[in-house]
């Protein structure tokens, strides 16, 4: 019908090729990493391993890099058109390796904040941000271990992989959004703690607050775009039930 043809024509006009989108998303991810590093270097005193606030500064940098940007890259591996033909195993290895790299950076980020708190006598795990963040990391570790066991080890039968796959996909997007929420709440918490005595109050919106709030918005945009890309039917690997995809 005419309406259906018009609908298809409209969808074709709105259809963005994956690779340019991926290049934009990669640039946005690098911008987020660069901005969190700049924030910690320019306004928060830089980096060290001496247990001071400069040790803490590793925490936001590693969390944004690992739990958001690298994790987002791992999630999008199967949307790369080159992964749609031929053996799936190399792409599985790449997906798992990127996720493992994200997990290692995340654990180092946790070590940084615990080291800072312990050296300063500050209690651990008292804020909503810390509860949400640690819960996200624990869920991430379970997700990686279950995915490794189901999809990379040869013992898992095809029916188990088919049963677990939608669960794995669902929690992949869920963990990313929890990561974004943890990062955004952490940025806000840090600003509340830092911009008070001896500095311009947060409520007066000094340059640091504008910069860090902008960073939070960009992290949110990055997460939403990744989840949107994962949900887009035209970017999903076709023939998911082929022998290649079950290898």
Walkthrough of the structure:
Helices cover 72% and strands 0% of the residues. It contains 8 helices and no strands. The chain starts with a helix and ends in a 16-residue tail after the last helix.
**Arithmetic mean pLDDT:** 91
Ends distance: 41 Å
Q: How much of the sequence is in beta strands?
A: under 5%
Give the low-pLDDT segments: 9-13, 242-247
Principal-axes geometry comes out as globular
CATH topology: Four Helix Bundle (Hemerythrin (Met), subunit A)
What would a concise description of this structure say?
The protein is mainly α and 247 residues long. It is 72% helix and 0% strand.
Give a topology summary.
Elements: H1 2-14, H2 18-42, H3 53-56, H4 58-75, H5 89-120, H6 128-152, H7 158-194, H8 207-231
Describe this protein with a few key phrases.
72% helix, mainly alpha, 0% strand, single chain, globular, 247 residues, Four Helix Bundle (Hemerythrin (Met), subunit A)
